[in-house]
């Protein structure tokens, strides 16, 4: 735990996604630099906590489960163990390596959601979404592939084009296909909840200006963030028509789960909470 009068350092690595076997590129790009820094901090006798864990919810897990004929939970159990073994073999010095499919994750994510709801930062709206009649389900972003409407890349996902980097609404894809059955989905309406990002613009802009001046941002990070601010922030959908995820605790939406990009960053907090029930001393303690 943080100690009064000491230098206290909390280190996290980007949470590796659970549906694959880590390779050298993952280790170099994800955990190695943080491990090196953690070792340096310990050599300096700084009070150091280094946590990480597998990111386990979302459509990529469901897709892998279909591929391997297992349940999503079985996929997570299998690959979490593989990840942990590989990092152990490389002697990555985590103080705690956890996962996001835990009761703490549900509790903390739902609490953050309730706080956003109480403060008026959520919107409710009907959206047009692709539905596969053959599979009898609405298709989450990663269950759809098609041609990017911006650059023409033919293997764009339903949430983002990996070639031009633009965010995509799945219904904008040209020639969409269901990844499960390769059928052609149809557009149908469904209700979802959105984070009201435009409400935050006035507070975000001065914070960004200060952070760009004092922080160590890469040119790429500055460019992407500036383009989002320049174009104006848009409400961002935080729910999905899936089974595998943190349940949405609100009447009318209890058959949905949180979008993995709302849920996964909260994993840093919940993994720390699995390490210590006094996790807030690490995450809500700017003086230390």
From TrEMBL:
It catalyses: tRNA(Met) + L-methionine + ATP = L-methionyl-tRNA(Met) + AMP + diphosphate. NCBIfam families: metG (TIGR00398). The gene is Mars_0. It holds the Pfam family tRNA-synt_1g. This is Methionine--tRNA ligase, cytoplasmic. One of its GO terms (cellular component) is cytosol. Keywords: Aminoacyl-tRNA synthetase, ATP-binding, Ligase, Nucleotide-binding, Protein biosynthesis. Gene3D superfamilies: HUPs, Methionyl-tRNA synthetase, Zn-domain. GO terms for biological process: methionyl-tRNA aminoacylation. InterPro entries: aa-tRNA-synth_I_CS, Met-tRNA_ligase_1, Met-tRNA_synth, Methionyl/Leucyl_tRNA_Synth, MetRS_core, MetRS_Zn, Rossmann-like_a/b/a_fold. Belongs to the class-I aminoacyl-tRNA synthetase family. The keyword Signal does not apply. The keyword Aminoacyl-tRNA synthetase applies. Residues 9-286 form the Methionyl/Leucyl tRNA synthetase domain. It comes from Stercorarius parasiticus (Parasitic jaeger). One of its GO terms (molecular function) is ATP binding.
């Amino acid at each position: 735990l943080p100690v009064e009068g000491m230098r206290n350092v909390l280190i996290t690595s980007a949470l590796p996604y659970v549906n694959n076997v880590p390779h050298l590129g993952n280790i170099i790009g994800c955990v190695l630099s943080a491990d090196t820094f953690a070792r340096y901090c310990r050599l300096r006798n700084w009070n150091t906590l280094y946590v990480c864990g597998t990111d386990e919810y979302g459509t990529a897990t469901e897709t892998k489960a279909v591929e391997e004929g297992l349940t999503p939970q079985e996929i997570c159990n299998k690959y979490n163990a593989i990840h942990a073994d590989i990092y152990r073999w490389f002697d990555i010095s985590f103080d705690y390596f956890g996962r996001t499919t835990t009761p703490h994750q549900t509790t903390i994510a739902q609490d953050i959601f309730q706080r956003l709801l109480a403060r008026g930062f959520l919107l409710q709206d009907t959206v047009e979404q692709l539905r596969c009649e053959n599979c009898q389900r609405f298709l989450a972003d990663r269950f759809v592939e098609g041609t990017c409407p911006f650059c023409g890349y033919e293997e764009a996902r339903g949430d983002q084009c990996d070639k031009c980097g633009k965010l995509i609404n799945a219904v904008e894809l040209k020639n969409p296909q269901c990844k499960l059955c390769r059928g052609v989905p149809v557009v149908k309406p469904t209700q979802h909840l959105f984070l009201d990002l435009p409400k935050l613009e006035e507070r975000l802009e001065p914070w960004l200006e200060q952070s760009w001046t004092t922080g160590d941002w890469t040119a790429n990070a500055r460019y992407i963030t500036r383009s989002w601010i320049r174009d104006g922030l848009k409400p961002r959908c935080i729910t999905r028509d899936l089974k595998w995820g943190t349940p949405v605790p609100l009447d009318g939406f209890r058959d949905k789960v949180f979008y993995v990009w709302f849920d996964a960053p909260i994993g840093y907090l919940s993994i720390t909470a699995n390490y210590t029930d006094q996790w807030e001393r690490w995450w809500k303690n700017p003086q230390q």
